[in-house]
Amino acid sequence: MIGRGTSTNRLLVLGSTGSVGVQALEVAASDPDEYTVEGLAVDRNTALLAEQVKRFRPDKVAIRDRAAGEAFRSAYGDRVRVYVGDDALTALCRDARAEIAVAAVVGIAGLPAVLICIGRGMAVALANKEALVAGGALVMDAARRAGVEILPVDSEHSAIFQCLQGPYARQEIARILLTASGGPFRGMGRERLSTVTAADALNHPTWRMGAKITIDSATLMNKGLEVIEAHHLFGLPPDRIDVLVHPSSVVHSLVEFHDGAILAQMGVPDMAVPIRYALSWPKRRADGSRRLDLTVCGPLCFEPPDTRNFPCLELAYHALRQGADRCVVLNAANEIAVGLFLHNRLRFTGIAECVEWALEHVPAARADSLEAVLALDLETRKRTIEYCEVL
Ligand code: MG
């Protein structure tokens, strides 16, 4: 790995006011000898960004929203370099000299920035799963060429990554098992699901997260995106990636090896653990936060996912088997559909309908360059919005 050694690690936190970004900064704050913050990037939450700038003293910040960004620049432009607008995130990454980029932006918006950070030799602590779903081959190829690590922050992928430490582990995998909480609507039938609201969905039973991922968890699309993410991170075909519903979220995922042994990674459901591991890898840093007590956590229950009432998981497997261009379409249609659902403009069951329609109707296209991926993403968004308007 380039640049990580005995000295302080400079961090870029892309999406610093989101759930993962905030927790990544807490990890940095807990170990100031190890981490400094070079740059922060946000969408529009400049109130929280202002607090972060005072506390972490980054050299530069990026703000996508133009009005919020200009106001921030007038107030803080004398103490920090401020990039504003749609290109702010990529401009910040291009000028950065950090050792580690925490990619915690939501959606495909993070993909260009991730590629720039890799090209500049930064290790990427990756929470932005959509970047891998839409551009997995691009990201993994770029990382191989640059000789940098993609360190998973997603709890399931961190679990698998932890189970795969050791010189031979990657050659000895039989399959991986991703666990899923099942979301707030586990056990419901389609009729009931067609009436649930965004507010119902945002009440996740075990994890506290942003709105997009919480809705994705409720539809099981989150697990579908994670299957595609795992395919890219660990180089396995779809038939060697299985999903298990495990409502208590104690086992974060498992690896079965070719001798039949299964390793699991367990712990309290707390994103600080995978974030800290990604930032400190290959070491583990001591931490005094909550510990798992196996005598009180109850029985560990597992069941197969309900793909009849929650079709998004199968749609993701289908896209992965079809190839890179369908994964771009899957992701873009889902981002649009989730946005419409959050604004009460689409039924919950309409999310899967939109994605399925897009997978069938958006014409095949190349997805072998960043430009091609972004063009197909845009085309899918346009067509999906048109389709949703007649739903
Ligand atoms: Mg996850």
The end-to-end distance, rounded to whole angstroms, is 49 Å
Overall morphology: globular
User: Element order, helices and strands?
Assistant: EHEHEHEHEHEHEHEHHHHEEEHHHHH
Q: Strands across the major sheet, in which order?
A: 4-3-2-1-5-6-7
Q: List low-pLDDT spans.
A: none
Mean pLDDT: 95
Number of strands: 11
Q: Strand-residue fraction? A: 5-15%
> Which value, in Å, is the CA radius of gyration?
20 Å
- Tell me the structural class: alpha/beta
Q: Which molecules are bound besides the chains? A: magnesium ion
Largest sheet: 7 strands, parallel
Q: Helical amount among residues, as a percent range?
A: 40-55%
How many distinct helices? 16
Describe the structure.
- This protein has helices at residues 19-29, 46-56, 66-76, 88-95, 111-119, 129-146, 155-163, 190-193, 198-201, 211-219, 221-234, 272-280, 312-322, 324-342, 348-361, 370-390, and strands spanning 9-14, 35-42, 60-63, 81-84, 100-103, 123-126, 150-152, 173-180, 241-245, 251-257, 262-266.
- The longest helix is centred in the last third of the chain and has 21 residues, at 370-390.
- With 391 residues, the protein is α/β, with parallel strands linked by helices.
- It contains 16 helices and 11 strands.
- Helices cover 47% and strands 15% of the residues.
- A 7-stranded parallel beta sheet has the order 4-3-2-1-5-6-7, sandwiched between helices. Strands 9-8-10-11 form a 4-stranded mixed beta sheet, with helices on one face.
- Helix 11 (221-234) runs parallel beside helix 13 (312-322), helix 14 (324-342) runs antiparallel to helix 15 (348-361) and helix 15 (348-361) crosses helix 16.
- Helix 2 links the parallel strand 2 and strand 3 (60-63).
- It binds magnesium ion.
- Magnesium ion is lined by residues 154-156, 226.
